Amino acid sequence: RDQANLMLAIVDGKITPISKNSSFEEGKGNLSADWSYWVKPDEATKKVVGRMLRSTDRAHDGQRSLLCDSMYRGGPVHTISPLPPGKYCAFAWVYVDMPEGVENKGTCELAVTPRAANGQNLPGLSTKITPSAGKWTLIVAGGKIEKEINGKEVTHALMIPIVDGFRGGGKVYWDEAALYRVNERQ
To answer: Which of 49, 106, 129, 144 is most buried, with most CB under 10 Å away?
Structure first.
């Protein structure tokens, strides 16, 4: 019931995201405003695998999305600061294109990682899926983030739509990646 009320509140525009540029519309060239790009190097070769950029190839909403092309692991990173304690819900749409004859074995994860003042990652919220190729899929991660986690004060958070295991040529498009602070009265 709470989740249904939350979804209705978002769809009806009663709550707005605390994150910015959720549809990757703003930016210059390949770079999206308010987002940085994290591309993990291959552990064996120590080389970066794949690329990340704003794309007009496909979009769930608007004109653009963020493309993670043939990536080993990584994703766009949005820093949310400050992050007061409370209930949070992150949403993102993902679309996977695979080369013909290649089975999708990669995963897509939507993570909200609370952080301490020194930048230490603390346990947070996440949902990981193996999306079907050829259609937009909604990923939702939600829960409560306390003022302190493991004795460390939470000062900010990273919202990261993560791709993992698409080095074989998969293209993953992210769109409408947003974090909402949920009013307890929703």
So the answer is: 106
Cα separation, 164 vs 54, whole angstroms: 18
Q: For 139, how many CA atoms within 13 A lie in the half-sphere containing its CB?
A: 30
Give pLDDT tens digits along the chain (186 positions).
Answer: 666 666 666 666 667 899 999 999 999 999 999 999 999 998 888 988 899 999 999 999 999 999 999 999 999 999 999 999 999 999 999 999 998 888 888 999 999 999 999 999 999 999 999 999 999 999 999 999 999 999 999 999 999 999 999 988 899 999 999 999 987 554
Residues 79, 55: Cα–Cα separation, whole Å: 21
The whole model's pTM is what? 0.91
